[in-house]
Amino acid sequence: MYRIDSMYEPMVEALLAARSENKVDGWMACVAFWLGRQQIYNVPDYWLALAAKITSGLSDADQNTILDQLSSKEAALVSSAVDWPETPGSLLAIVSGWSPEPPPVDLYAYAASKRYAVETGGILLNGMRVMTDRASQSLITGAYNYVQANPDVLVKFKTSGGFVELTAAQMTTIANAVGAHVQAAFAAESDVNVQIIAGMITTKAGVDAFAWPSDAGQSTDT
User: Fold this and answer.
1) What is the CATH architecture of 107-209?
2) I need a surface site. Which of 95, 159, 163, 170 has the fewest CB within 10 A?
3) pTM of the predicted model as reported, rounded to 2 decimal places
């Protein structure tokens, strides 16, 4: 784990990570020269050789900006740089012992993503799979409004299994079932948030384990 009183560790980690990806950038050269001048982790020759190699690969403008700030010894290293220096074993051993804390999980955002997946995942209504993605919700609402104004019509309704013909009563049943499912999903997210605040849910696994709405109970006759 990083020590709070040290700025070297994140600098070293970022530099070595960029080097492992064969990146060459001005900030890398500046960091490497600084680490070498400060003799960080007792490998100044490595840092200076790394800085020189990075600098030699920069554009002329960036290279000149850095060369203007170097001593004659450092500038000579740049002009003679050929191969990438081998990372000392002592430095690798130090770096391998670091284990930064993972970033905290935003449980509220995770619960919202879980609710969205449940909300839009569809329902099973008397053996008919009804899609509940946002576009389907809008179309179902439109069809429901249509049959309220035209109760004698039959509507064509597309399910995940294909087209069916529905009466106004059946369309109303579907709209009510979808609306209830969506509301149950949001109610579940609200309850999860309450439990997060209370410290009862502290992990993503706890969010997943909550009693989210499912297809169970969707047996209303159409």
Assistant:
1) Orthogonal Bundle (1.10)
2) 163
3) 0.54
